[in-house]
Every structure is written in structure tokens, then in C-alpha cells.
Amino acid sequence: MSTDPPGASSPPGTPSGPNGVGPSLSEGGERSGAGASLSMAGEAGLPSLSEGGVGEGAALPGAAGVVATNVVLVTGISGSGKSVALHALEDAGFFCVDNLPPELLRDFLRLEGERTDRRIAIAVDVRSAGSLPHLLPLLEQLRSEGVAVQTIFLDATTGALVRRFSETRRAHPLAERGALVEAIELERQLLAELRELSTVIDTSQLRPLTGRDAPVAAYLAAQPEVAEMLAQIESFLRRWLPAFEADQRSYLTVAIGCTGGQHRSVWFAERLAEAFGARAATLVRHRELDLTP
User: Fold this and answer.
1) Do residues 123 and 101 make contact, with C-beta atoms less than 8 angstroms apart?
2) Are 189 and 218 in a shared domain?
3) Residue 254 near residue 272 (C-beta atoms within 8 A)
4) What is the pTM of this model?
5) What pLDDT is attached to residue 122?
6) Cα(251)–Cα(281) distance, rounded to whole angstroms?
7) How far apart are the first and last CA of the chain?
């Protein structure tokens, strides 16, 4: 049974860039935790993914009569949320490719145009640093041929990036060349020109939502399986609490678990505390949230 909440809502931000793409609801930040899907909310969002949000493609040279699919190019600073952005685009119906070498972009679009008219999202970052000088001329050429390519650049403050790398314990792609802060600044230099030609979205203020937050709580409360499970747990406790009390036990521990310990288990514990708080003193402890700095 899957009851994970969907991508968290992000209040509209103000992205800037030549593409003129406005923000919409998305999640942000790198995914973390033991397989948990992290809902993000904050001051930024992804571009609109509605059918009209991305223009129609045009025929690629060498593929007469074949129409190129819609293309969103996702790039940005490492740790700014590109992986989560790709997952959000995939959920919106895009076919996503991570770290496609720029040299393969044209051939890939031609192949996709021959197969289907599905929308495409491609992530390009500093891992392809050696190919970046070829990317900008290629994008200009594709646009001049009528191919609809929108470039989205995700960014964040250096402080926010350092905190995220510290929390996830992942290595920066350029970390072998120096300290983390130095690697981030080097990456900014390598991607500076691409940033200037993209719609920029700042993800610095994105924060994780938990089962205590209204969007997550509303989502879980609307799931029939969740309501049924909560009712069954409450019924079980109400049936056996009198026998537990008759045995002169001084306290009872009810433990609820879920993947990540951030959403479902938190929500269940809060609802059970509300249900039984009037009967006895109730202490709620969220193990994973208590470990969050």
C-alpha cells in the first residue's frame, strides 16, 4: 500500500530568464532518507507543465517529417534540486534523462521524434563539464531550427548548498579539486553563461514537510486505506486498553513506523494522541523528527 504524499506545494517565487517561464507547484531539494519521497515547499517552483506550457517542436534536420518532442533542459548547481525536479517532471508526464552528454542531444531528439510525440526533460550539469562549451551553440542552433527548448537553471545560496551536502553526506562532483565551498564556486564559474540564458529558480528556502504539516495531513486523511488503518488501530486499542489497565500497567507504548519516519507515521501518531489524549496523559515522540537539526 502506498500512501506517500505527492510533491509538496511551493509558494510562487519569481524566476528570471529569457524563456519567460512562470513558477508552479513542485518539490525541491535533493531527495534524501531511506527511500522516502521528500516533499518540498518554499519560495520557488518549477515551470508550468501544462500542455500549453511548452511549445511544439519542429522537424529536425535529417529526419524529414518527424516532429521533435517538447524539450525542457534542467541544469543548475549541484545540490540545488535537479534530481527532484526530474522526478516532478516525470510525474507530470515527461520522459526524463539524467546527465545526457550534449553531443548526443541532437541524435537523441531525432530518435525520440521518430518514436513518439512525448515531452522530454533532460538534466545536464557539471558532470558534463567538458561538453558544456558545445551545449550553448547547439541550443541556439536547435532554437533557430524551430525546436522548442526551455532551459531551467536551479540555484541556491552557498550556505544552503553546504548544509545540504553536509546532511546527505554526498560528495560534490568537483570536490576532488578542493574544499566544498571552492568546488561550488568553481561550478558557478563553469555554468555562469548557461545560467544567464536560462530561467533561474532559487531553491534556497525550500524546506521539508512532515506529517504535522497541513498539505501532508490533508493528503493522508483523504486516502481511504489510511482512514481504514487508523480506524482499525483505534478500535484495537479501545478494545484492549481496559484489560491493560486492569493488569495495573503504568504505561503503554504504541509505535508506528513508515519509510523515512517523516510523513505517515508522524500523522498516525498525532491522530492517535488526539483520539486518546482525553483518556490519559499522552506523550508523542517522533524519532526521526527529533533527530533533525
Assistant:
1) no
2) no
3) yes
4) 0.54
5) 92
6) 10
7) 30
